[in-house]
Each structure stands twice: as C-alpha cells, then as structure tokens.
Amino acid sequence: MINIVLFGKPGAGKGTQAEFLKEKYKLTHISTGDVFRFNLKNDTELGKQARVFMDAGDLVPDELTTKMLIDEVNKHPDTNGILFDGYPRTISQAIALDEFMESINSKVTATVALEADDEILIQRLLERGKTSGRIDDQDEDKIRNRYQEYNEKTAPLMQYYNEQGKFYAVNGIGSIQEITERLSTVIDNL
C-alpha cells in the first residue's frame, strides 16, 4: 500500500496532478476540501461541528479536521493506497495522521511538494480566476495572504517529513505532462 501526501501552494497544480496520480497508481484521492464540502452539504455530525467554527469565522480545529479525514479513509478499507490532498496542513495534523496510519498498520510512504515561484503561481491563479468563478483566485492580496498562511503553517511540514526521509520536492513549472512525469519518477522509485 502506498500513501502519498501531495503538497503545494494554491495554483501549483495539485488538483490536476492528483487526477493523473490516482488513475496511474490506482489510489484513493482524498481532498480535504471535498471532505469538508461533503460533511457540510450532508449536515453530518462532524459537518455541524465544523459549521459552528466556520460561521464564527474561525478555522476548524485540527482535531475535528482529522476526524473527518479518518472517517473518509475508513470508507476505503480495500484501497491500494491513498493520495492525501490538502491534509495534513499542520504539524499536529501530521502527527495525528502518523498515529492513525500506524493504528491501521500502514504509514505515509512519501510527501511530494509541487514547487513553483510565487509570482508565476499568482499569475496562474489570476488567470484561473477569470473563468473559475472563485473569488479567492481574483484578488492578488488574498492570494498573497494564502501563500503567507501556507509558508507559516504548511511549509514546516516539509521539514517534519524530511527528517523522516519521506519528503520529495518536484518542480511544478512546465507542461502538465512534464510535471506528471517528474512526479511519477519520484513515486516509481519509492
């Protein structure tokens, strides 16, 4: 079983690459955003709890986010592996994920970060924002704020996984096919 954590700033191409990777390696793709949307839309108990924080303008606590993710992983007991997209985002989430994976006799195999220059990514998002309808992709200040949050909260995870020998950086600039090939080279050599 192979379990991959996919990192990257907004606009780095995580969603696009996740589609290729899940097909090629027959992985279950678990996107934190999709998990949140499902729980909120279906008014699950965890969704109701998350909504309280969100309605107050607060971040959903790590513990609650982790519970949602664990529920989603448990829906796929016969998977070949999991592609985590958007989780973990903090060290405490990474520790919780490691503990959970160990409890099911598994582990995070590798973390892969799609890396690209901020200015290139900002242009990508502004371009995407013209057609996606996503308000957060249409305002450069909001995009820069998202990058600052990424640097403060998510980037330390790279060191956490590097210390475990599980971190790989991949150049996220180029054609979709070129980036997919770079990711495949990393995964094929695990």
UniProtKB/TrEMBL annotation:
Binding site for ATP: G11, A12, G13, K14, G15, T16, R128, G174
Primary localization: cytoplasm
Pfam families, sorted: ADK
GO CC field: cytoplasm
Any one GO molecular-function label of the UniProt entry: AMP kinase activity
Enzyme class: transferase
Pathway, per record: Purine metabolism; AMP biosynthesis via salvage pathway; AMP from ADP: step 1/1
Keyword entries, A-Z: ATP-binding, Cytoplasm, Kinase, Nucleotide biosynthesis, Nucleotide-binding, Transferase
Biological process annotations from GO: AMP salvage
Subcellular location: Cytoplasm
EC number: 2.7.4.3
Function field: Catalyzes the reversible transfer of the terminal phosphate group between ATP and AMP. Plays an important role in cellular energy homeostasis and in adenine nucleotide metabolism.
Protein name per the record: Adenylate kinase
Gene source species: Flavobacterium frigoris
